[in-house]
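Worked example 4.2. Below are the chains of a multi-component assembly; read each line carefully before continuing.
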Amino acid sequence: MSKPYWTKENFPITPVIRNPAGSLAFKCGEWRTTTPVIDTEKCTKCGLCQIYCPDEAIYKSQAGIFEVKLDYCKGCGICANECPAKAIKMVAEVDET
Amino acid sequence: MSGSRAVAEAAKLSDVNVVSAYPITPQTSIVEYLSESIAKGELAAEFMQAESEFGAMSACIGASSVGARVFTATCSQGLALMHELNYVAAGLRLPIVMAVTNRQLSQPLGMWCDHSDAMGERDSGWIQIYVESCQEALDTVIQAFKIAEDKGVLLPTMVCLDGFILSHTSEPVEIPDSEAIRKYLPPYRPDADYHALMDVQKPLAAGGGCPPAFTMEFDYKKYEAQEHAKEIIRKADREFEQTFGRQYVLVEGDRCEDAQVILAGMGTMIGTAKEVADKLRKEKGWPVGVLKLRCYRPFPKEDVQRIASKAKALATVSRAVSYGIGAPVYSDLATCMSNLGQKPVLLNFIAGMGGRDITQKNIEQVFEKGMNAAETGEAAAEVEWLGLNKNLVGG
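Applying the procedure described above to all two chains together yields the following structure tokens:
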């Protein structure tokens, strides 16, 4: 689990977020059961995966290829569904424990 | 002046910054007076005519969120249309003050007084105060801002006055000195580090989603604030008395010290009940008293227990129905008495629905049935409808 946003010391009277970009601390990637794997050979770099990602978890790296921020990817599969080149596959994560 | 005028004068004296409302009978005259005052420049406030009550309360929430002192008024269908936003206002802990000219809810459609509308908002987190006279309406609206804006409370507050019976009845009303009011009620200055205040210097996000890990804790904070409000309402009342000489308390016991039978109710019926109690004491020597529930949320449990637990019978007269069980005010009083060893027999009356008058005769019936219950130690019926035309519906 990620660190709780509120503690006894800062618990407000109503749910308010006082720090901008507070959702960065909320690692929703922990919910993921399947991970998008991008085939850079097939990828045409159209960027639709980045546009459709509801969590802004896909970005274009300095090398110009699309990568996934696993801290925030919930594994919803929208990117794989939208990819016109079928370059993204959702791969099940194996729980090794 | 009328109850409506008294409420409007109070909002004016409170130096409100924003009034947002939508007209509905019998509330209309309150906002008419206010829009006129604003148009004439007597009150330096923004008047926002909304497209509906949903819009009006939304505007109130927005205005209060940027730190404005906000007033609105509505009733009946209008209050019902605000329902969803009323929970938001309370949850965001915004000290909005709203006058409710209590009116029945459709169906049947009617413009007349009962408390069904405000009872629908009973559990929203708003403070609810029911007044008996035009003077009390004026004084209570001013007190309401002081209570709602208290840092330990921060809950929106409804001032409920019986539609037409009080909103459209003229009584002599003393208008307090505006400078003295400004001293009693200084401008609202929310703290950006504590309130959910929209301040460009200190940006924040409010009104968003909240996971199960925290929601219950916010509910608890609201519950605590309602409990704490009792003390703040008493304090606001005491301070008001010191300057203006009038005090109302949370629950008023009229001739309850030695009463064996007590009638409990809210709003204008209390005036009638006091008259009848006086008459019955003089003419028949009956030991009867009247308990006026002024503050309904928070429910002044301790005060009610102190005043009423030693009586032999406690009769509740409710201007609202809780279908399938009885009446809300009765249920609350029964809750108060539930854990006491010594407690009165409880009687449950429903009266005055949809503008039906609550007459002296009705009140006499309540006291008579109360006297019987005091003697026998039991209630003759689970619930009784006063003034019901049994020729039409049996019963």
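Take a moment to check your reading of the output against the notes. Chain A touches chain B at residues 4, 6, 11-18, 20, 22 (CB under 8 Å). The mean pLDDT of chain A is 90.
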